[in-house]
Amino acid sequence: YDYFQFTLQYQPAVCNSSRTPCKDPPDKLFTVHGLWPSNRNAPDPEYCKETTLNVTKIGHLKAQLDIIWPDVYDRTNNVGFWGRQWEKHGICGSPTIQDDVNYLETVINMYTIKKQNVFEILSKGKIEPEGKNRTRKEILKAIRSGTKGKRPKLKCQKHTGMTELVEVTLCSNRNLTKLINCPDLFKPSSQYFCPLIGIQY
């Protein structure tokens, strides 16, 4: 892999854009979707080897992970969600990611210590979740001001005629030491492309 994508999802938009209803009302927050080893010019690695999350080793992390990395569809299944992310993506992050516990700790570290919390970044840029229409430029400017100018990847989705901001991805180099410009953005032809104007958040 060449780099990592750290993808955060805006809970209300995720619930709106899903065929599966969310069991609990969503919080107006961006929480973690996953940390994914990725390639610029090849398919991203997935399911690199047989593994399962060792649930007995993660007790000390659970309270923090429940807050920053919930399964938005079913909060009783957070551990299952982290397990699926580890099996599909995390295991492929070796040697930067050492094991399952290190994968979870790395996510906590990125969200809290490295301040890659998109909700806070947008808020500092005076963009709050008010259900207002925003321009793509406004959103990008706010995020870049909190990421040393690096370009994020935005994902939007249409819901009852409105376009909602669903996910923001921040990209890091392959050893997770610094943010980089996200290389692989959604094309205008994609259903996930964010238009210039009229993005609801």
TrEMBL record:
InterPro entries: Ribonuclease_T2_eukaryotic, RNase_T2-like, RNase_T2-like_sf, RNase_T2_His_AS_1
Keywords assigned: Disulfide bond, Endonuclease, Glycoprotein, Hydrolase, Lyase, Nuclease, Signal
GO-annotated biological processes: RNA catabolic process
Protein task: Self-incompatibility (SI) is the inherited ability of a flowering plant to prevent self-fertilization by discriminating between self and non-self pollen during pollination. In many species, self-incompatibility is controlled by the single, multiallelic locus S.
One Pfam short name: Ribonuclease_T2
Protein family according to the UniProt entry: Belongs to the RNase T2 family.
Superkingdom of the organism of origin: Eukaryota
Record-given protein name: S8-RNase
Organism of origin: Malus domestica
Any GO MF annotation of the entry: ribonuclease T2 activity
PROSITE patterns in the record: RNASE_T2_1
